[in-house]
Amino acid sequence: MEALSSGLPVLAAGFSLKDSIEGIEYLDKLTPESIAIQIKEMVENPRKVDVFSVRKNYSWEVKAQEVEQVYDVVKKTYFQ
Length: 80
Description:
55% of the residues lie in helices and 8% in strands. It has helices spanning 2-5, 32-44, 51-58, 60-78, and strands spanning 10-12, 24-26. A two-stranded parallel ribbon has the order 1-2. The mean pLDDT is 92.
């Protein structure tokens, strides 16, 4: 997320986001050849990154508020 919020496109593997974000590409295969092909593709054809969306939905402040909401629910459910 740090790279995306700085405007740098990202190749990722092992997770996916619930919402599509322009600038993130997922690795189909984790072989060296496949990774090299996707890196070359990104270098030769730079991706636009939706910095606004990343900052709006995935900033530390937003994530901290989401965690606080979970704590509030747990507190109200189990400790009152």
